[in-house]
Amino acid sequence: MFCTSCGTEASSVAAFCPNCGEAMPTKTSTTPESARPATSAPASSPAASVSPAIRFHLDLGRWSQTDRISGGATLVLFISFFLPWFGVNLYGATYSENGLDAHGYLYIPLLVSLATVLYLIARAGWQELPGKMPFAHSPMLFVATTVDVVLVFIAFLLKPSGLGWEVGAFLALIAGVVAVLPFAVPIYRARSHS
Fold this sequence. Notes:
This protein folds into 2 domains: 49 residues, no CATH class; 134 residues. Helix content is 47%, strand content 8%. The chain is built from 6 helices and 3 strands. It has a 3-stranded antiparallel β-sheet. The N and C termini lie far apart (70 Å).
């Protein structure tokens, strides 16, 4: 069976064309070879109208080593906000709260870390990001990860009275430091050599 829109051959049970997404005819095409449209997609089809730079295709090879380290640590940081940060065990009863419950301002690094992860996914998905970014890549990630680690460090130190630290607080602190290190170390080295 052939698509009436772009001429691509498809399975006889296919409901939509695998090339252009057009609905397939219900009966098999008996159009002779010479009357069939060319197999390349016409300019009006959605596949042809989207330039290769605008199509999203996740390619992790577009990430630098710094992006991988910082992005992975930022994802761990994002997850850690939902884990127990502070808690106490009294007479067999356990009470714990995550960082967001203990410190409302941790929604700031939560949103910043989510935006960072989404930004890195976008960089891996598009050859060129749609639209112009207001800041350069590395300085923007450095500022975002610095905001995260500073607020997490403050929240770690401001432990609620009577509660102890739980795994989420330690994981968030470690992930925040790891996320900022790939940007902070080169800056420190450059300043120490000058």
